[in-house]
Design goal:
The chain is 42% helix and 17% strand.
Amino acid sequence: MGPGDPAVFKTVGCSNHSGRFDSCLFRMYETLPQVEALLQHPSIGKWFVHVSRPVAADVLRTTIEEFRTRIRVEEKGFDLDEIVSACEKALATISCQRLQRVINATGVIIHTNLGRAPISRENWERVGPLNYSYTNLEFDVAKGKRGKRSSFTSLLLTKMSGAEDALVVNNNAAAIFLILSAFAKRKEVIVSRSELVQIGGGFRIPDILKASGAKLVEVGTTNITTLSDYLDAINEKTAMVLRVHRSNFALRGFTEEVGVRDLKNHLPSDLLLVVDQGSGVVDRRIPSETTVARHIASGADLVSFSADKALGSVQAGCIVGKGELVAKLGKHPLFRTMRIGKTVSSLLEATLVDLLNGVDQPVGTLLFRGVAELRKTGRSILERIKSERLSLIEDTMTLGGGSTPDESLPSLSIRLESSNPRKDAQTLRLRPVPIITTIHKGAVHINLGTVMRHETEELVSALGDLVEAP
């Protein structure tokens, strides 16, 4: 009989009599299985596809060490089933770190923690062959020689924005950093104090200016920045005026700011006017946001924005504007460290083609879906589950992702009455397809505004299991 034999794993106790006690503990330590033996266990092997065998081995080592500590503290042994169960729990916990599909029932459409914009399934399937095959990423098929990377994406962006040229990097922070590095290094950049924002993850506009080598010049006050504030700050060291989207907050009340067109009409012709539009709004159906095209038409020299927010595509940073400026950015040494590959390029192309053809992406579908459809869906769910704990209530949802920060849209939520809402929210969150909810006034809210049509069946199953559980 060896240490890995299940028959050895019997819960035993030790009486504390010096040498006898030490000998008893030693025997219990010996019963702990070897990592290699545990890796052969069928209940452990099934986790390899989720976390890999080497990572599983590390988890097992840590878990066995925890049992070694428990033997010393609790003075008892543990059987194999208990050890395997603990290992499985630890493996399940670490596997949650892996990317997985979740159902967004928070009411925030562009949810940064949940991957921002969901990508069109049709587009994903359409570009699949491009990503498991070779492509003409930097090859001109017509001319038979090397071509420009993402040239067609740039063409589509110019059509959408009205700009002369366009460039794509890996995100909007990179876009701003590239612009500042190329045109404002060791020079001054004027920014209104009302736009010195910090967004998620601790990203601050003053920090990125400093890192790029540019010097920040703050003008105006928190709530009011006038044209004269900008003009008075200009000197021979000034490189540009930077307008920044406020992202997650808005100013209301006694406020004043200068529009892009007014700035362009009064700034010296050699001074760049750059707009960090941020949200990627190109749809005029969102009146509270200034579209990318509007900024270009108003005279902005360069406009940058995210592709994975309101645009509804993959993570990328888009730069549109004057041809000579975009060309200079494309030749800057930093651009090579920020450029996108075929996966991002193919998905962004597909999104832009759809948008130019008037086809809404999932973000648009969720945003403009009517309350009547949500009510029909909600009633259908309640009729199928039939529980007094569930009710359909009026609620709101937001676009999120640093867009329309102080505006909400009508929505509906399923309210789950609960004596322990945190536990119920956790139960939904730990399902095979996690459902991410919110808690309001002692109840769990499942906001239907951000639940996609094809996710309804999973929602019915989850809520049914929850309310029927003892």
